[in-house]
Amino acid sequence: MIKVVTLQHIYGKNRERMAGLLKTLVENELKDLEVNVEISITPENWAEFTLEGEDEEVSANLLTARYGTPAKKAEPEKVYIGFLQAFLEDAFLVNIGVPVRVETEELKALGSGKPKQLASRFGLIPHLPVEIEVIEANKNLKARFTKKQLDIWWNWKKAATDRVTVNGATRSEIKSAIKKTGHGRDIYEIERLGLLEHAIVCRENTDGPGIVAAIGPRLKSEMGAIIGDAN
């Protein structure tokens, strides 16, 4: 038996529902391996998977490689995977296992504006996975987003089409909401960002905020919209 704590937060009003969704997703990912999967929630609200079976070690390595594990401390000049936790007046707060601040000075790479304005412009919402580099490790941990992360967001912004970010929902739930609201033809694809975090790629001439307004009531999710500059 092996236990793996993943860098996947259990969030939202219905924690048991989310835990069940995560268990199903991971079971599907490991379906070709001989392993039994159980899920629990740590006191810090991380998803912990208990793996038991012939392929438990391989399964543990796959989950760790794909989703990461919470860091117990941050080291300067080291790159970490985390998730957006909050947008403060003077910083983005990123959780890598411990909270890390990406302050206003380091957000200039996203253009002008306060952190909340920048988040809105790029469709950023809590729980989206991100990659950061720690630049200072004292009582107030400070970091910057990696070039790879900034390039992803700028590619969204410079695209010819809008995007809609969604958290706390499976791909099938998003597809169902799109279908039921009659927007199937307006969507190009659904990009998977995390286990339950996605970006809906709109087709040309489809309004991202309009998609949010249409499918939002059908999803128990936070949503953001990125207006493609080339649109």
From TrEMBL:
Coiled coil: none annotated. Residues 3-72, 74-157, 161-227 form the DUF2110 domain. InterPro entries: DUF2110_C, DUF2110_central, DUF2110_N, UCP019322. Pfam families: DUF2110, DUF2110_C, DUF2110_N. This is DUF2110 family protein. It comes from Methanosarcina spelaei.
